[in-house]
């Protein structure tokens, strides 16, 4: 709804324009004035969005009125002037003062509406830009408050004033919305803004994790959001809501409550609202089942697969986890990572990371949508490690795998040979073979192949008359420069120098 003031000393003209506006724009609020002084008082009092003023008026003409308004910083209004054909000199003077338009008397209905529609469009676009700028500014400053551990109370108060956030005298809540399904944060924020369009006391923004966060004085807003979002049957969401807070300066603490509440979405993904007051009393569990976790680690690679799974289910007992603080599950995950996974990969080296990339994800439970998805991934990773260990032990116990690999290398070193070819020949996983080869031989595959080729080259250099170029190809190097470089790296001298010394 916009406010319009019409100023003209001719009663029929001002009332006629008012009637036309009321019929075309019934939501508009209109005011009238019969002279410039009355118009100025009405503008200062009512702060209209649009002023339609005659140029020639008693007490204060339209030009003087425009000049007075431009000196009032708090008055932001769009001005349209009315003039007769013989007032063109005045009209030109008014135009210098950046009026939006001028209309000739008698006012044509079509021209009036065209002018008003143009001004309305400009006002709406300007308002959108202002709101967007304020929204972006609020989001950046609210996140600054949340992320800055050393921010001072007086700085916080100053920021709230700049953000135009009132003190919420009747209290407020903070809600964080967790949505499954990979919905873009900005798109979801736009959706929430539309749903909250009629709520002037709710402030939505994206927190540092890209989640829609809402400050609202009205708890009922969250219930309305739940109902509206719930209409989409494919949408899985949870709103974590803080306790009621009285002081906006406590926003950081209140946000923390909502952040704790929303963590329980991980355990209850179908629960659409989780209140901090309902989870804050969940007990902290100091003692972790460290012995059982260690037992699982020790059993990996044995024939006790069923026991491993049974122990894992006991460790990850959902009833215990659900009745404990969410910190318990977070600490449990950390203990499993430290005892089983990190120690395992430390022993096996970087090669195994290719095979078990899931470790990077399972390091944080919140990389998964819910507890059951996390548990199945955890069990899957344990079973993969279990099978890996069994194969590693089999390789250690059956030396024939390495014997076959070495024999194959020594018979085929002159060919285009690499680790994958040899691993495939003896039917072992690439990563397993890479690790076991180094363990067995004492050097990696590339260095061992170089050694075998250089040994053969030394024999040919001493016992035959083949050219160095020919010997290079005979030992598997098509590029003689590469052959010379490898030979020098291994022996410290060039192939030519070696032949001269041993000829």
From TrEMBL:
<feature type="modified residue" description="4-aspartylphosphate">
    <location>
        <position position="54"/>
    </location>
</feature>
<keyword id="KW-0597">Phosphoprotein</keyword>
<keyword id="KW-0805">Transcription regulation</keyword>
<dbReference type="GO" id="GO:0000160">
    <property type="term" value="P:phosphorelay signal transduction system"/>
</dbReference>
<dbReference type="GO" id="GO:0043565">
    <property type="term" value="F:sequence-specific DNA binding"/>
</dbReference>
<dbReference type="InterPro" id="IPR011006">
    <property type="entry name" value="CheY-like_superfamily"/>
</dbReference>
<keyword id="KW-0238">DNA-binding</keyword>
<dbReference type="InterPro" id="IPR051552">
    <property type="entry name" value="HptR"/>
</dbReference>
<keyword id="KW-0963">Cytoplasm</keyword>
<dbReference type="InterPro" id="IPR018062">
    <property type="entry name" value="HTH_AraC-typ_CS"/>
</dbReference>
<dbReference type="InterPro" id="IPR009057">
    <property type="entry name" value="Homeodomain-like_sf"/>
</dbReference>
<feature type="domain" description="HTH araC/xylS-type">
    <location>
        <begin position="403"/>
        <end position="501"/>
    </location>
</feature>
<dbReference type="Pfam" id="PF00072">
    <property type="entry name" value="Response_reg"/>
</dbReference>
<dbReference type="Pfam" id="PF12833">
    <property type="entry name" value="HTH_18"/>
</dbReference>
<dbReference type="GO" id="GO:0005737">
    <property type="term" value="C:cytoplasm"/>
</dbReference>
<keyword id="KW-0902">Two-component regulatory system</keyword>
<dbReference type="InterPro" id="IPR020449">
    <property type="entry name" value="Tscrpt_reg_AraC-type_HTH"/>
</dbReference>
<protein>
    <submittedName>
        <fullName>Two-component response regulator</fullName>
    </submittedName>
</protein>
<feature type="domain" description="Response regulatory">
    <location>
        <begin position="3"/>
        <end position="120"/>
    </location>
</feature>
<keyword id="KW-0804">Transcription</keyword>
<dbReference type="InterPro" id="IPR018060">
    <property type="entry name" value="HTH_AraC"/>
</dbReference>
<dbReference type="GO" id="GO:0003700">
    <property type="term" value="F:DNA-binding transcription factor activity"/>
</dbReference>
<dbReference type="InterPro" id="IPR001789">
    <property type="entry name" value="Sig_transdc_resp-reg_receiver"/>
</dbReference>
């Amino acid at each position: 709804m916009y406010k319009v003031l019409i100023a003209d000393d001719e009663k029929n003209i001002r009332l006629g324009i008012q009637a036309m506006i009321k019929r075309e724009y019934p939501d508009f609020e209109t005011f009238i004035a019969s002279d410039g002084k009355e118009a100025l008082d009405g503008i200062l009092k009512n702060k209209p969005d649009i002023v339609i003023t005659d140029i020639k008026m008693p007490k204060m003409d339209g030009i003087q009125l425009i000049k007075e308004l431009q000196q009032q910083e708090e008055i932001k209004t769009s001005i349209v002037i009315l003039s007769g054909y013989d007032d063109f000199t005045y009209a030109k003077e008014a135009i210098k003062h950046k009026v939006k338009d001028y209309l000739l008397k008698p006012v044509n209905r079509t021209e009036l509406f065209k002018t008003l529609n143009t001004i309305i469009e400009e006002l709406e676009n300007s308002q959108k830009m202002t709101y967007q700028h304020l929204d972006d500014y609020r989001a950046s400053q609210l996140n600054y408050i949340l992320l800055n551990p050393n921010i001072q109370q007086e700085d916080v108060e100053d920021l709230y004033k700049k953000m135009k956030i009132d003190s919420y005298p009747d209290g407020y809540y903070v809600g964080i919305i967790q949505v499954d399904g990979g919905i873009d944060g900005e798109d979801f924020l736009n959706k929430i803004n539309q749903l909250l369009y009629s709520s002037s006391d709710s402030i939505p923004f994206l927190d540092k994790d890209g989640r829609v966060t809402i400050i609202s004085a009205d708890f009922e807003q969250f219930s309305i959001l739940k109902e509206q979002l719930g209409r989409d049957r494919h949408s899985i969401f949870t709103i974590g809501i803080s306790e009621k807070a009285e002081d906006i300066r406590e926003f950081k603490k209140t946000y923390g409550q909502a952040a704790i509440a929303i963590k329980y979405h991980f355990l209850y993904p179908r629960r659409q609202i989780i209140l901090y007051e309902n989870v804050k009393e969940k007990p902290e569990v100091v003692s972790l089942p460290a012995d059982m976790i260690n037992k699982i680690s020790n059993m990996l690679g044995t024939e006790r697969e069923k026991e491993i799974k049974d122990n894992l289910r006991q460790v990850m007992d959902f009833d215990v986890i659900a009745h404990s603080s969410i910190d318990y599950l977070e600490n449990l995950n950390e203990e499993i990572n430290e005892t089983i996974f990190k120690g395992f990969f430390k022993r096996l080296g970087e090669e195994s990371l290719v095979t078990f990339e899931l470790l990077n994800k399972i390091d944080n439970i919140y990389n998964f949508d819910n507890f059951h998805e996390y548990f199945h991934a955890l069990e899957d990773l344990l079973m993969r490690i279990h099978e890996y260990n069994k194969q590693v032990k089999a390789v250690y116990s059956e030396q024939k795998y390495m014997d076959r690999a070495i024999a194959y290398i020594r018979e085929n070193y002159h060919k285009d040979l690499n680790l994958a070819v040899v691993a495939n020949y003896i039917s072992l996983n690439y990563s397993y073979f890479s690790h076991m080869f180094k363990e067995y031989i004492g050097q990696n595959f590339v260095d061992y192949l170089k050694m075998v080729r250089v040994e053969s080259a030394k024999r040919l250099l001493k016992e035959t008359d083949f050219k160095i170029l020919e010997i290079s190809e005979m030992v598997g190097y098509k590029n003689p420069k590469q052959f010379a470089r490898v030979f020098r790296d291994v022996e410290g001298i060039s192939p030519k120098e070696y032949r001269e010394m041993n000829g």
